[in-house]
Amino acid sequence: MERAIVITAGLLASGEAKTAHGLIRESERFTIVGIVDHEQAGKDAGEVLDRKKRNIPVFKDIESAMSVQPTICVVGVATPGGIFPDNMIALIKAAINNKLSIVNGLHEYLSERADISALADKNGVKLIDVRKPKKRENLHFWTGKILQLKTPIVAVIGTDCALGKRTTTRLVMKACKNSDINAQMIYTGQTGWLQGGKYGFIFDSTLNDFVSGELENAILTCDNETRPDVILLEGQSGLRNPTGPCGSELLISGNAKSVILVHSPKRVYYDHMPQWGKIHSIESEIELVKLLGSNVIAIALNTESCSIDEAFEFQRSYEQKTKLPVLLPLEEGCDKIVPFIQKLVAKKALL
Fold this sequence. Notes:
There is one protein chain. The N and C termini lie far apart (41 Å). Helix 10 (282-291) links the parallel strand 10 (258-263) and strand 11 (295-301). The chain is 35% helix and 16% strand. It has helices at residues 18-25, 45-50, 62-65, 88-97, 114-123, 165-178, 190-194, 208-226, 248-252, 282-291, 308-322, 329-332, 338-350, and strands at 2-7, 30-36, 58-59, 72-75, 101-104, 127-129, 153-158, 183-186, 230-234, 258-263, 295-301, 326-327. By secondary structure, the protein is α/β, with parallel strands linked by helices.
């Protein structure tokens, strides 16, 4: 795997660096050898993320990061609207001048900026815009074939954005594999691809008419090539987040009849923005999932702003209220969901 540094431009400790956070935790596509963030320089990236040392140093600038001999520079932020932070373009130019190819997951395409494209050509490096839409001839329209699929499909959706749906999905997959369950993941965002996902598509850069078809095609291709016991779908945004109400496609077009619902007990407003409205109760979200024809089989808690004691208290409280298993993915992993997945697999065997 190529050695990569990840640039976050002072945002490493914020939710906008969720792409970097995923890569710090794991990547099967790149070896992450450093982070460039002037606010956290000198620290270990894992300790900044979740107080777990991962031996990934944080550098103040591109020049100092060259000491770890990278060949790739990854844009590690996901900003509102997918626009580059003002101070990041200078970092990208510095990386190109140091002969690093750039991997960009934002909606703003580097390959379409004349200054960046010319600089890349001059230095003989590549500009890889992950979110650039596929050409029409490469897109798939929904066929209905998925309705014949017997493999159980579990969607990991959330009550809001940036709750750890992708991380939860990967941890559930890991727990399944540790119990000899062949679990495969369908990624739906740029970070899923950056982490090495083989099956999936990038939801928010796909023409709306083809979202359902791309989802169906990814699931059917994965099932045909890997013969999984269970397929896990990474959700995007939230069912009722007004900036991007997503999730129903996974349940209806993706035929996911089971759901792991990710929720933040202390988050009040969508994306922390009062003007966007309050997040609906988890009970009403469970009911909405049911109205869409699926069932919530577990809750996963994002424990942002919680102490350890509060995290476990919320876990107990939600288990009592909902009568569902409640996962603490970062504190405990996702082993608790395995018996419920095993039941889904056993039902498939009887079909």
